[in-house]
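Weekend entry, working from home. Most of the wet-lab plans are on hold until the incubator is repaired, so I used the time to fold the two sequences that have been sitting in the queue since the last round of cloning. Logging both here for the record. First:
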Amino acid sequence: EHTVGSRYRLIRMSRVTVESLSGLTPIDTLPSPEELGKKSCDKCKRNRMYFCYDCRVPMDGVPTPTVTLPCRLDVVKHKKEKNSKSTAIHAKIVAPSQTRVFDAPDAEDLEDYGSGEGEDGWTVLVFPSENATSIEEFTATKGKIARFVVIDCTWFQVGVMTRLPQLKNLPCVSLRAYSTAFWRPQHNHDDSHLATIEAIYYAMREYQELGLKKAYKGEFDDLLFWFFVTMGKVDAMKEMKEERRKRQLEEGGKEEEQGEKKERSTAE
């Protein structure tokens, strides 16, 4: 899911890694799938492992980290994007009181943000439109950001989403350029296209460092906790498939060798 929480480029920067995040809760503190097992979600009654991506709540007994963000977050998610594959849902799991998720384009509960200006600060859309300004420039000229709005969809759906009447008058801010750590490449898009949760992480970090002028000390690295948990599962599956492929090649080679020996024995 490389999504429109993504195409922000000024200066190429290295991708974020587990090792580069000083505040990330160690992934190995999470119980294994065998230890946890799947449980029934209290709300929808579906079986889930770590959290219910449909109800957007952690499962009972799962030690999920929590973070406090420097501003509020609204995720406007295209309803055809699978919840199970959406990294934006991770923000709701770790910052539940500051994060809202709306299913668009027919989200009846999505408020009209108007011009984005409010008594407690601005609501801005994180999107690289032609008129977008950097987070640093926006805060320097307009003032405090109270809420980021992030679109969670593919680039094929972005036109519909940005034309939503509730969003169309919002000022847009763009991010500096980063390389994604996402494991599922998007066709015809390079690695400067981030997964949505990466874009959320970088937006929050840029706002704290460049907008609020506060040193960042890893306070919300855990926005990426479930992202890296999922990455570990994907890597493990890749390793299993590679081991299986190697075994099949080895077994195929042995069968071929035995066949050749049998042919020679018959010829003799």
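Second, folded right after the first finished:
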Amino acid sequence: VFIAQSRASGSHRDVEDEELTRIFVMIPKFYTEEDLREKFKMYGDIEYCSIIKNKTTGESKGLGYVRYLKPSQAARAIEECDRGYRAILAEPKNKSSESLEHDYYSNNSRQEPRGNTLPFCGQPEFCSFEKNESRIQDSVSKRLSVVSRLPLIQEQLFALFDLVPGLEYCDVQRDPHTNSGYAVIQYSTAASAIYAKYKLHGFEYPPGNRLTVIFLEDGSDSSE
């Protein structure tokens, strides 16, 4: 198993440096770079850590980067770190941090906490998060809708979405009038569905045909 580089990327070495070894994480605002390093060093050799700060006040925005020496270490950190960190692969450095923050909050589509439940409350240090920092959408579920202007093939679409752990079923349908494709995907957890949407919305399959991936209401309690 390997991670394919995008067509816009340069050499494999460039891709490995820019796209596969840096992760983007949500952290408590009081974290220092040393705190960040301490939390993530168990997953591999860290080249550097950095925290995104407000340019005017110098205060942490509650977001940071961790760069590892190897892609496998970054992948392990994403898979094994506390879910509250919302860890994802970082965009290449040529994309501004402001743009990445916007994409992170919008594409990751994290759900609004209910009551007094806040991100990271499994660990006392994370309970200092303020509610207005959550910026989370309400529409998250474990089920996704996939729309394509071309017909979809059940086996191939299943294989594509099965790259994200937790796939429960893939149901492909076809509109006989428009020849477009439609499918319903369901994962065992909302976290898997969020990651699949983040990675596969806009993905070209087959090349030249962009998939539209959105959340579908699955009837579950979104507070989970």
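Plan for Monday: verify the second prediction. Residues 109-122, 124-138 have pLDDT under 50 and may be disordered.
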